[in-house]
């Protein structure tokens, strides 16, 4: 999980309200909103007229969306919603010394359509029925490092004083759409979408069933009848990460499940999830979760 850089809070004397105080940066094809809340509140209503991409910066919300069960929304996560979605938001912990802060970036649908049409025309996805597009089945996302980086870049462009920022924002919006769709494609294969939708769909299940074994890229490439370089290139284009990075992420997910649900030692979990070296496992786990496996277990127990 990767975080959005913290944005300087509005001085108290400049606040117009203590619930969802709003600072707006308007560009030609997008609008950046920075929201801050300084007291507990419930069912605060919010609607945008364009596609909106939101990311939590600090604090915690509880989101109520028409198509989702209510869920907690915290830093390291992004939520997107189609135009016109009626949101209701709770702020269970907000206070003056612990405000919530969230960014909301609206993008006009024409810009999104142009980007996905360009991708479908020039870089068609592997699979019979697969295509590039924003998928509103997967709207509550954990930030990947590349998604967090491009959102941070977008925030910086929108908030700076620069005569060329509309041009820079337009280019960065295209990258943002690509990174979002790549991340959603990962959620798609996690959700076991049939192989007719994606040439790589069934590989997710194969990887999950063989995490305790050695899995190499050559084996995976043979299963989709591609050369190793071609498979590597197409996989990274579809999902934004390499096959090796995907295998590591699945091993770390399984490790978290075993840490939380069993009394296995960290060394046993390392072996069970296919890591060949305990020190490397601990290093990768800490890079992903911010704490070591032992600290993660202690945190769950406290």
UniProtKB/TrEMBL annotation:
Coiled coil: none annotated. InterPro entries: Homeodomain-like_sf, HTH_AraC, HTH_AraC-typ_CS, Tscrpt_reg_AraC-type_HTH, Tscrpt_reg_HTH_AraC_N. PANTHER family: ARAC-FAMILY TRANSCRIPTIONAL REGULATOR (PTHR43280), HTH-TYPE TRANSCRIPTIONAL REGULATOR EXSA (PTHR43280:SF2). It comes from Flavipsychrobacter stenotrophus. Keywords: DNA-binding, Transcription, Transcription regulation. One of its GO terms (molecular function) is DNA-binding transcription factor activity. It comes from the Bacteria. Residues 201-299 form the HTH araC/xylS-type domain. This is AraC family transcriptional regulator.
